[in-house]
Amino acid sequence: MSSTFGSLAGRTAVVTGAASGMGEATARLLAAQGARVALLARRAERLGTLAEKIAADGGQALAVTADVTDDASVGAAADRIRAAYGRVDLVVNAAGVMLPNPIDAGRSDEWARMVDTNLTGALRIIDAFRDDLLAAGAEGRPADLVNVSSIGAHLTFPGYAVYSATKAALTHLSASLRAEFGPRKVRVTNIEPGLTDTELGGHIDNPELSAQLDGMFQAFPDALTSEDIADLIAYVTSRPARVNLRQVIVLPTGQA
Fold first, then answer.
1. Which residues are catalytic?
2. pLDDT of the chain along its 256 residues, tens only?
3. How far is 175 from 192, CA to CA, in rounded Å?
4. What letter would DSSP give residue 33?
5. C-alpha span between 175 and 200 (Å, rounded)
6. SS (H, E, C) 190-211
7. In whole angstroms, what is the distance from residue 29 CA to residue 204 CA?
């Protein structure tokens, strides 16, 4: 990584969506920079493999199988993390799903899944670790909440109405939480990536939209990588505690 980071040593982080993509890359980098990292996702085997890789590289990681769409699962995960690591001072909401289809397809199953993962799932995580973050801020220690939204929060793409709506809601939630948490010394950062090469596109079941996304990657061969987003998250969370990079829109250079 090329960025110059401040100290993340001694921080205790929770990263959702850690089984792949941005979440996995972020967990690996935070651990490499000295943070203890709790890895949250549904796929236990992938989490275990990642925890082993982090340990082999000299880092500390705890694999915690959890589903952000389930209250009890999130609560149990939070209890396990505190038992192992104590209170958390860095939370990254990277779990998300992108299931585009035209509204007239009537895919209420996809709508519910996106809302429950992208928005309500983030809220469940925030609720589970809110007191930890506020305690860190009250003690004068760095405290960070990072929400991974999307450029789709601002731009309109046919077929992506509900996905974009969930990301717009997350972006606005970040702004509102900053008003509540900022005065209590908890930083809130909202990150909106543009075209990024992750496995999200593999979940699309609409052949036309899937081909359209493939075409975008062909048009922009220098798309962002998960490591680019991880690099950004490590940078913003390692600034001096007085510095809050509140909103970061990050695009591939060729994507205007």
1. 163
2. 445 567 899 999 999 999 999 999 999 999 999 999 999 999 999 999 999 999 999 999 999 999 999 999 999 999 999 999 999 999 999 999 999 999 999 999 999 999 999 999 999 999 999 999 999 999 999 999 999 999 999 988 899 999 999 999 999 999 999 999 999 999 999 999 998 887 666 677 778 887 877 777 777 778 999 999 999 999 999 999 999 999 999 999 987 6
3. 13
4. T
5. 25
6. EEEECCEECHHHHHCCCHHHHH
7. 28
